[in-house]
């Protein structure tokens, strides 16, 4: 491409892999997908077009996009028998537990797209996963709240289909608000891929053994669930509610700075960003838009979030350690305003990130030097010693 990035040799020697998909400059707070900045994609593109970009390396022509969207639309249904997987869980099962189980089980239903040596099967698996994740996430939610499953429809766009599958009930039709659908689509785009984060590295490691794509994505979902990673959006909203009012903020900031207190400001800090996470900036704008639309201008949680951000950024501890809001800081506020419970925040992150995992999985498989992941260790345990019989211990 036009811009060829060169890395400091030291970095290259520690890099997990070479990739052409996503570039992050943590110091500048820059995020590029195939060279396109995330703020331009979030404002000018839409999720399925970004999926095409991540999967195939460039923005599609109108015809390419139409074909791609048609293929995704026509794969949104789940094998009818998969409903029994959902029904096997307790009603109070976390939707992420259901998603890990159902996605892993897909290899038992779609075994004609599990042979990773067949490029066509890899392509079919990719489309199936992107197409079916909204149905799986929506049905995990419906099962959780005790409502009947709502089937996808081919006359709705990707985000509208997901919102309708979540919120429509047989008793009355759910009319998707285009502004909400746009906000939902933007959240999908902002979470689509993020270089070699923990869950993507998990998918790459699993794929290096030749595991089928559904098993690899299930592994990524399991890793994303953790509160230090994708689970942070749920943990952040719960933290903002625990803070409750602006006057409680100093107490929580003091706790976050206290070395003896395990409390962290959820939605703050990042392994790579030492500047604003560009996704958080777009998310904050979106939060204002969606809450205005919902007529929740003076949302107390949003007020606490904005004041917490302001006070933390003015605090030398956060400033000196270069801790800024990340993608998870505002997303929960938007999702709750849309009507989602906190337990659905990470499933929505997983749904969005599936294209990133799949793109990186395909790149890993196309790497001629790909070997099974086998990290070494620094052994610091006992040196050689002989067995001691129990009577002599
Ligand atoms: C995601 O990798 C990705 O790309 C992930 C992600 C993606 O799109 O895939 O971006 C999504 O996972 C975003 C991160 C979501 N997690 C959270 O918001 C949880 C809260 N954040 C922290 O747990 C933490 O910031 C991490 C885990 C994200 C990063 O931890 P690090 O690697 O320890 O961060 P650091 O090295 O920059 O920390 C520097 C210092 C440390 O203190 P010292 O050891 O130097 O004394 O800052 C401290 C940290 O303890 N610190 C925090 C803090 N985050 C780091 N102190 C208080 N609150 C925080 N949130």
TrEMBL record:
Any one Gene Ontology BP term: tricarboxylic acid cycle
Keywords recorded for this protein, A-Z: Acyltransferase, Transferase, Tricarboxylic acid cycle
CDD domains attached to this UniProt entry: EcCS_like (cd06114)
GO molecular function: citrate synthase activity
PROSITE patterns to which the protein is assigned, alphabetical: CITRATE_SYNTHASE (PS00480)
Gene3D superfamilies, sorted: 2.20.28.60, Citrate Synthase, domain 1 (1.10.580.10), Cytochrome P450-Terp, domain 2 (1.10.230.10)
Pathway connected to this protein: Carbohydrate metabolism; tricarboxylic acid cycle; isocitrate from oxaloacetate: step 1/2
Catalyzed reactions: oxaloacetate + acetyl-CoA + H2O = citrate + CoA + H(+)
A cellular component annotation (GO) from this entry: cytoplasm
Active site: 270, 328
Keyword Cell membrane in annotation: no
InterPro entries from the UniProt entry: Citrate_synth-like_lrg_a-sub, Citrate_synth-like_sm_a-sub, Citrate_synthase, Citrate_synthase_AS, Citrate_synthase_bac-typ, Citrate_synthase_sf, Citrate_synthase_typ-I
Family of the protein in this entry: Belongs to the citrate synthase family.
Protein name: Citrate synthase
Native species: Marinibacterium profundimaris
Organism taxonomic ancestry: Bacteria, Pseudomonadati, Pseudomonadota, Alphaproteobacteria, Rhodobacterales
């Amino acid at each position: 491409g036009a811009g060829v990035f060169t890395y400091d040799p030291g970095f290259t020697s520690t890099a997990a892999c070479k990739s052409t998909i996503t570039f992050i400059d943590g110091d500048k707070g820059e995020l590029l997908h195939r060279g396109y900045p995330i703020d331009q994609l979030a404002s000018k593109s839409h999720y399925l077009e970004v999926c095409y970009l991540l999967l195939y390396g460039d923005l599609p022509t109108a015809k390419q996009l139409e074909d791609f969207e048609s293929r995704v639309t026509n794969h949104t249904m789940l094998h009818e028998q998969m409903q029994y997987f959902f029904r096997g869980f307790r009603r109070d099962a976390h939707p992420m537990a259901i998603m890990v189980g159902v996605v892993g089980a897909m290899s038992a239903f779609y075994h004609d797209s599990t042979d990773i040596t067949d490029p066509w099967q890899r392509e079919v698996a990719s489309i199936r996963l992107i197409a079916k994740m909204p149905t799986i996430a929506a049905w995990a939610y419906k099962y959780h709240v005790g409502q009947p499953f709502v089937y996808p429809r081919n006359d709705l766009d990707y985000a509208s289909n997901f919102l309708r599958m979540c919120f429509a009930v047989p008793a009355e039709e759910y009319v998707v608000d285009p502004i909400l659908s746009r906000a939902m689509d933007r959240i999908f785009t902002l979470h689509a891929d993020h270089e070699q984060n923990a869950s993507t590295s998990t998918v790459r490691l699993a794929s290096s053994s030749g595991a089928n794509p559904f098993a690899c994505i299930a592994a990524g979902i399991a890793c994303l669930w953790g509160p230090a990673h994708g689970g942070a959006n749920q943990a952040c909203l719960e933290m903002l509610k625990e803070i409750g009012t602006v006057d409680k903020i100093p107490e929580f900031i003091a706790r976050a700075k206290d070395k003896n207190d395990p409390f962290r400001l959820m939605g703050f800090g990042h392994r790579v960003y030492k500047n604003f996470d560009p996704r958080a900036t777009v998310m904050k704008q979106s939060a204002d838009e969606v809450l205005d639309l919902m007529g929740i201008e003076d949302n107390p949680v949003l007020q606490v979030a904005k004041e917490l951000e302001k006070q933390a950024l003015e605090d030398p501890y956060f400033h000196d350690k270069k801790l800024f809001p990340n993608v998870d800081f505002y997303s929960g506020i938007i999702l709750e305003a849309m009507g989602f419970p906190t337990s659905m925040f990470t499933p929505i992150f997983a749904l969005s990130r599936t294209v990133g995992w799949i793109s990186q999985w395909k790149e890993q498989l196309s790497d001629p030097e790909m070997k099974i992941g086998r990290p070494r260790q620094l052994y610091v345990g006992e040196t050689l010693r002989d067995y001691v019989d129990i009577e002599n211990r």
